[in-house]
Specification:
This is MFS transporter. With about 425 residues, the protein is mainly α. About 80% of the residues lie in helices and about 0% in strands. It is globular. The relative contact order is 0.17.
């Protein structure tokens, strides 16, 4: 039975905690699959060539980005007309979990590359669509005075969730001489080639599914409007088209969507290819990459939580601008670094600003969204992010191939930060 929607002035602590825990849950997919473990395994173990593997992974992320861009605003508008968002979230969460678990069958064999990329594309699309509905529930869950704080808490908890999952992956799988805690009493050799790495996909799937459950139990859903799916689809698409036709009415929303699309693309490119960059450029092993990822998640989570109060007090825009400036300052020496010590220093400095930029972007979108249009607006948030978003992986892959250097590919993110910063200066934040 769906829990009644509480008064926004008196938010339920259990509901807020459960909402934040969904960030803890879904961080396993980003951390294990798209960033630090499976992407590296795909390039090194499945394809067997870091440069070629990076390029193919980049192409798959581009395909996923286009699909997300096309689907997210339409589904968001439909959900606004239907009212309820939990069924959509449940569907896309389940799809993500199933296709993530399917990666267990990807052997270190080039013949399995196509199957791996197909699963990753489907899982990534479902993952991002679930997040459209998840983010859209924030404005109805807490009052405006708490938007920045709760959004920051969610991002911070998400980073620490990624940290916990990585530690478990490192201790229980990647470095374990036998399956987790001697599971089934079998050696890894009995499970097949590189089973200890492949099993991290099962860990990510189980983690996501398990810790997402509190959201569906205790976070209130929007009340159903009584519209059937077909009627909601017709009205949702019509509303979306009307919004696009009358874009001038939402000028500030448009400015923010374009500005955030660029800087989010830079962040997403770094998180998607950070593990590949560390492995290919600095020769880090799986174990070293996981230790680095653990440290990165600690500083990123601390940054997200630390800036959460500043978001509510000073506004989301100053937080975003400070974060973009910090990421740019850290990125330049990071790209020039030749020693691992300097790589660690500047990469952790870069990570400190990831969470604040992302959390403040979510709270800014929640503040700008007109009443009753949160799903549609977060769908457009996903659309603009992905409309520009496929350029990041595409340019990364093209530059990596053209210069035979991952440094050249990673350097492309600086342009996205600079453009996002410049466009963000023109955005006016709503009065609080």
């Amino acid at each position: 039975m769906t829990e009644a929607v509480p008064s926004c002035d008196v938010p339920s602590r259990r509901a807020i905690a459960s909402w934040c825990l969904y960030d803890w849950a879904n961080s396993a997919y980003n951390t294990i699959i798209t960033t630090f473990v499976f992407s590296v395994y795909f390039a090194r173990g499945v394809v067997g060539d870091p440069v070629e593997g990076t390029a193919r992974w980049s192409a798959a992320m581009t395909v996923a980005g286009v699909a997300i861009a096309l689907l997210s605003p339409v589904l968001g508008a439909i959900a606004d007309r239907a009212g309820r968002r939990k069924p959509w979230m449940a569907l896309f969460t389940l799809v993500t979990v199933l296709f993530t678990a399917a990666l267990w069958w990807v052997r270190p064999d080039p013949a399995d590359a196509a199957f791996a990329l197909a699963c990753v594309v489907v899982a990534t699309v479902a993952f991002e669509l679930a997040n459209v509905f998840y983010n859209a529930t924030l404005p109805g869950l807490v009052p405006p005075r708490l938007l920045g704080r709760v959004s920051g808490w969610g991002w911070g908890i998400g980073y620490f969730g990624g940290l916990a999952c990585l530690v478990l992956a490192l201790v229980g799988f990647v470095q374990a001489p036998a399956p987790l805690f001697g599971l089934f009493g079998m050696e890894w050799a009995d499970w097949g080639q590189q089973a200890n790495v492949r099993a991290t996909a099962l860990l990510a799937a189980g983690w996501y599914g398990l810790f997402a459950l509190p959201y569906f139990l205790w976070v209130p859903d929007e009340p159903a409007t009584g519209h059937g799916l077909l009627r909601a689809a017709r009205e949702g698409v019509a509303t979306l088209l009307a919004t696009l036709r009358h874009a001038r009415r939402y000028r500030e929303v448009g400015r923010f969507l374009i500005a955030s699309a660029f800087y989010r693309d830079g962040i997403n490119t770094i998180t998607a290819f950070g593990g590949l960059f560390a492995a290919g450029t600095f020769g880090m092993s799986f174990e070293e990459i996981l230790v680095f990822a653990i440290a990165l998640n600690v500083v990123a989570g601390a940054g997200a939580i630390g800036f959460a109060w500043m978001d509510d007090r000073a506004g989301a825009k100053p937080v975003i601008l400070i974060a973009l400036a910090g990421m740019t300052v850290c990125s330049v020496p990071l790209l020039l670094a030749t020693e691992r010590l300097w790589f660690w220093i500047f990469a952790l400095g870069l990570g400190l600003f990831f969470g604040p930029a992302q959390a403040a972007g979510r709270s800014m979108m929640a503040r700008l969204a007109p009443p009753g249009m949160a799903g549609e607006m977060f769908g457009l948030y996903g659309l603009t992010g992905r409309f520009v978003g496929f350029f990041g992986p595409l340019l990364f892959g093209l530059a990596t191939q053209a210069f035979a250097s991952q440094r050249a590919g990673m350097a492309t993110v600086l342009a996205f930060f600079a453009i996002g910063f410049g466009l963000m200066l023109a955005v006016r934040e709503p009065a609080r």
